[in-house]
Amino acid sequence: xxxxxxxxxxxxxxxxxxxxxxxxxxxxxxxxxxxxxxxxxxxxxxxxxxxxxxxxxxxxxxxxxxxxxxxxxxxxxxxxxxxxxxxxx
Length: 89
Fold this sequence. Notes:
Helix content: 25-40%
Oligomer: single chain
């Protein structure tokens, strides 16, 4: 079975860690592996909600910044895509 990029990145980092002495302060991984790891970490960051201002006919509402789904008031996570949504304040 073929590994996903996520699984492959984790596997590569784990192999380097296994081959490196436990007391070593530095390890060397390829640039591609480092870029993939950073990309995966960034994907986990909360997204900014899209805030639609209150108008004469509609109350203010928010949408998920990742998929555009309507956010229930006070929601921490999008019910459609599961991304964490940044909160006010």
